[in-house]
Amino acid sequence: MHRILIADDNIANRELLEAYLIGVDCDTETSVDGQDTLDKIESFEPDLVLLDVMMPKLSGFEVCKQVKDNPATSRVMILMVTALNELGDIERAVAAGTDDFLSKPVNKVELVKRVENMLKLKGTEDELERLRRYIQEMEDGNDQIKPLDSSDDA
């Protein structure tokens, strides 16, 4: 089952987003500020973070950049959800590494569809990574096998 972290300092926003996700097959967790979000990413290991930009302690931009710059968390999908919708804000979100951007007020149908698509993409990326590791293990194992020498048959 997928895990989604809802990061917003406003309790009403957190509750609304959680309610919107009731029909999505996922476990949810919430965080209340930027530092709490980083801590929860480490402990909860979400597949996707719904990340508010305007939060205390660390902004969503800062959280996103730290998550994407850290090899241990760089594959976590981030959907920034914010009232900021100026072109410069979108550019900052993209520069920080966000995977997608959604403006408030949030439309339930749009949120659910984006979340489902992002989770599907995350599942595909995870499977691709698993196959890459498997292929690498097989190639590494082949290095241990000595080729048969035709002169050994005699």
TrEMBL record:
Source species, domain of life = Bacteria
For this protein, the record's SUPFAM superfamilies field holds:
CheY-like (SSF52172)
- Keyword tags: Phosphoprotein
Q: Where is the Response regulatory domain?
A: 3-119
Which residues get modified to 4-aspartylphosphate?
D52
The UniProt entry, under InterPro entries, shows:
Bact_response_regulator, CheY-like_superfamily, Sig_transdc_resp-reg_receiver
Which is a GO BP term held by this UniProt record? phosphorelay signal transduction system
Q: What is this protein called?
A: Response regulator PleD
Q: Which organism is it from?
A: Novipirellula galeiformis
The gene name on file is pleD_6
